[in-house]
Amino acid sequence: MVTFIICLSLLILAYFTYGSYLERLADADDSNVTPAIRLEDGVDYMKLPRWRVFLIQLLNIAGTGPIFGAILGACFGPVAFLWITLGCIFFGAMHDYLSGML
Known about the structure:
Blueprint: H1 2-26, H2 35-38, H3 50-76, H4 80-101
Helix pairs in contact: 1-4
């Protein structure tokens, strides 16, 4: 339980700190118009509501999480929480944010 609390704290801390670091690294500019708005045609390019974009991201992450989490937990025990947490922060968050910015 201690490992779980530590990992949960790391995820919350990274949400507020590492996300802003990636935003500075990608040089995000809110004045740029996204292709979903600039090329909107109702088929391939369309603006989605925020809840739907969040749901798509959640389903992409939640689909493989239970599989890999159980396998790593069975192989390595509670320390797998740390590997999953660090992997989500430094690789998953970076990949999702920067590929979205591209």
